[in-house]
Amino acid sequence: MKYIFITCSALFLFACAQKQAPAENTTAPAAGTPAAIAVNKLPDPVCEMPYDTSYKEWTVYKTDTLHFCSATCKSVFEKAPEKYMAKLGK
Q1: Which of 9, 14, 19, 32 has the highest CB neighbour count under 10 A?
Q2: Residue among 59, 65, 69 at smallest CA distance from 31
Q3: How far, in Å, CA of 60 to CA of 39, rounded?
């Protein structure tokens, strides 16, 4: 039992002594900025959250294919597409 306690204490101290790398910047770049485009992420037309084109939620409005971050954003867009297309400048 004594050896288990010593081993656990040593592992705990070793883990605490490790220098942690600085946290990655998890804030999303502003919609439409070059940084957002550079990382292949475009803003969702409804919530403006960056999305990846590999997401499953998408729709075609007139001639534009729009991708969404979630099924909720897609359904909100489909209720008032003109409002969100005006936000996009189209």
Answers
A1: 32
A2: 69
A3: 23
